[in-house]
Amino acid sequence: MLEGYFAGVQERVLSRSWNMEGIVLALVLVTVGLYLGGSYANKSKFESWIREQSKNLESQFFQVGVSKKELFFSDDEQHYVSYASGRVNVAQFIMKFTLESRQNFTVWLMEHVFHFFFESIEALNDEVEITATLHDDIKVDPFICAIVNKDDMDKKRKDNYFLSLTKTSDSDKLPVEYVYMSESAEINDALWTPELKELLEQNVDLIQYIAFTDQSSVHPFSLDETKPKFKAYLKLKLKSDKSSLARTSEIINRFLELIDFIASKKFKIRSEVSKKIAKVREAEVKKLQKLIDQDKKEQLEEQKLEEMKKQREKLKNNPKELEKLEKKQREKQQRKMMKKQRVRG
């Protein structure tokens, strides 16, 4: 009985065409293989970078890693975060990594194809953005000064609020691939050294920008967010070959030296320059206050409209009272219009 059953099953299995199932299985295996391969490529590249740089950072910071046991954590196959702390002048040193979407081969391929044919599509790069925050007891006069690679310069300005407050200028003191985005030429000169120019010349393929600012990278939405808090930013392309890793270590060391110089008493901004910068800050605060007031006004109008709707809903079965309410609203609107006309006159 059982022998006959199994013989029937075997006959049906052997007689059936499994072409479609084979194709589906092959596609699943290829998709899984590409996902695992892309994920491995990203993690391998990132780990090569962070292992090498952690050796360098250990000579600069008391602790390197998000905890004593963990060097980094990842949100997904594309995004990683690492951290260092415990250094003179620098309270926090946060490294945020963004890698290409290699784990999703279809998306990765489409992004490359679109970028090749359309310049408006941003270039894909493996990048790390480093944010260094000074200790609270270190006082630095408010200013913004950045050295920015000309590649995707407009996007960098758009992505960073503090850069929108600056003026762009070329300089003989910088390689042709870079521009200053700053509030004062005097500050540019104060931070410039021949060694800095040489560093930029040797690392055009790595350095995206070096920035020092008392303002946020994100547009403020409250007056509290406009308060000065000094930070330094370094954005680099992430490369894991031996030469690039060595150059990256040197860039990070020079970046920390610049922070030390700014935190020292040697770095000073003339009072005339500080006054001009203060005026820019005041103008931005006024703009923001105007937006906040406008938002509050709109919210009040919405509340009034909501109350009116509720009143009408209550009086919909009482035509006389509803008519009185509407008359009052019309009279109120007329008085408002007359008041506006008098002001204009």
From TrEMBL:
Basic and acidic residues: bias regions: 307-334
Residue spans of biased composition, Basic residues class: 335-345
One Pfam family hit: CCDC47
UniProt KW Transcription regulation keyword: no
Main localization (coarse): membrane
Protein name: DUF1682-domain-containing protein
Record-linked InterPro entries: CCDC47
Membrane topology recorded in Swiss-Prot or TrEMBL: Single-pass membrane protein
